[in-house]
Write a structure and sequence with these properties.
Elements (H helix, E strand, L loop, with lengths): L1 H6 L5 E6 L4 E6 L4 E3 L8 H11 L10 H7 L4 E8 L19 H16 L5 H8 L10 E5 L6 H9 L9 E3 L2 E7 L2
Antiparallel strand pairs: 1-2, 2-3, 4-5, 4-7, 6-7
Length: about 180
């Protein structure tokens, strides 16, 4: 019971970890249902604190080093911070069940996030933990390695144009507004 209070999730819900996607998800132990977004009735502020505390460790190794090197050919690794708006493809997230902000409001939010990152006040990864509307927030926005054709075209074009360590301008996709940082 204490876990439910700490997580902010409604009764019978718990946070579990997907081995295949290496991401946390939400599971109802009574109804035996799972979902990527928090269930209705979640205290999102408590959940943000819980997730930042217990699900923000560095990304564990996914495979032996030799296999990883082969898998990385032609791929890059990026982290991102996503701010969704009501016209996004799926206007909900782990932070909010229903996102109602306008695209203009989302743009102002992400511009402020970018300014904080550029000024050195906070890193993209630190900010993603609590402010990104993507489930990758739990991994500090780290999307892992991906190649051409794996992401939405606007995202891919911006990501592949970055140098390692470089931060993108705001990138607009069907998913919402992104800041992208090239990691490898």
């Amino acid at each position: 019971m204490a876990d439910q209070i700490d997580t902010g999730l409604p009764p019978n819900w718990e946070v579990r970890h997907s081995q295949s996607k290496n991401l946390p998800y939400y599971f109802n132990s009574v109804e035996k249902v799972s979902r990527w977004e928090p269930p209705a009735g979640t205290d999102t502020e408590k959940l943000k604190i819980y997730m930042a505390t217990y699900h923000s460790n560095a990304v564990p190794s996914r495979a032996p080093a030799v296999a990883q090197a082969d898998d990385r050919a032609g791929k890059i690794r990026c982290a991102h911070l996503l701010v969704k708006h009501r016209d996004s493809r799926r206007p909900s997230s782990w932070r909010e069940n229903t996102i109602t902000r306008s695209k203009e409001e989302a743009f102002e939010i992400i511009k402020a996030h970018r300014q904080r990152i550029v000024s050195g006040d906070v890193s993209l990864g630190e900010l993603a933990l609590t402010e990104s509307d993507c489930s990758s927030a739990r991994k500090r926005g780290d999307l892992g390695y991906f190649g051409k054709g794996d992401m939405q075209k606007e995202f891919e074009d911006a990501a592949f144009a970055l140098e390692v360590g470089q931060l993108s301008d705001v990138v607009d996709t069907a998913s919402g507004l992104h800041l992208i940082e090239r990691l490898d």
